[in-house]
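Let us work through a complete example step by step.
Step 1: write down the sequence.
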Amino acid sequence: MSTASRVNPYHLFINTHTHAQLYDAKIEVVNLSLGSKERPNYYSYGLHPWYIDKDSLSYDLENLKVLAHEKRCLAIGECGLDKLSPVDFALQEEAFIEQIKLANKIQKPLIVHCVKAFNELINCLNLNNNKVPVIVHGFNNNENIARVLVNQGILFSFGKALLGYESNAAKAIKNVGRKNFFLETDDADISIKYIYKKASELLGIDEEIIKQQLQSNFENVFKLSLSK
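Step 2: predict the structure and record it as tokens.
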């Protein structure tokens, strides 16, 4: 009996981070802005490091604390740190720390955006006693950063960067371990099914095995049973 025939043929396609409900995966975690009137099946809320406003930060954080309790809000994010953002970096850290505290209070994972600030990201998490899962979305960084994140227990979400066979993402997915990653489309105009296909090719394993593993990862991290 082949490996493929032994696994459940009904495991789901899961899109862990997208900016629009695409309806091509059974589970799509849609990143919503705080003022959004949308209510997809599943979503996340967070303060992105590019869009933090000093004058409205206190109000936005209070609003986030209310919205984050919604049952279908599965995570806090995307949030994080970005040294290319025009927003003052100290203000980014302040907002990120408050979101770490919120995520730990309500026991929901963090979906993180990080650009050129991984040391600061890890410091913020460790100094604030983070205990919830952390997923760095759209990961496409070098193997040294990937190794540090794995050692810190941080998880990965890979997207369109996998399509470049020589990309950092394409190399990293082979080394981070199957239990430590998810797949996403982010804001790319591409089907999550194509991302799964590329991940399968890169890892040299049957796509159904990836679906099985990522469903297990999702259930463990997001505390949501997806069993039929």
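Step 3: interpret the result. Confidence is low (pLDDT under 50) at residues 1-7.
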